[in-house]
Write a structure and sequence with these properties.
By secondary structure, this protein is mainly alpha-helical. The protein has a two-stranded antiparallel sheet. The protein is elongated and about 40 Å long. The N and C termini lie far apart (35 Å).
């Protein structure tokens, strides 16, 4: 099972990687209800909602990284 601190670290790494491309997802974080479950599963990272500008920037960064 993964620990909450491992999930937090993963979310922060993703936040930093996105920031390196000028992308901010304000709702990015760990989905805490997963850890309150009786049968905890793998932690989920919540990406949340984003506007069109952010979605386009994310798409461009992913395409650039794939080249």
């Amino acid at each position: 099972m993964h620990s909450p601190s491992e999930a937090d670290a993963c979310a922060e790494e993703l936040r930093a990687a996105l920031a390196a491309h000028g992308i901010t997802l304000p709702s990015l974080g760990v989905d805490l209800p997963v850890f309150a479950s009786r049968c905890p599963t793998r932690p989920l990272i919540t990406l949340g909602n984003c506007n069109l500008l952010t979605a386009r920037a994310l798409t461009a960064a992913l395409r650039e990284g794939a080249e």
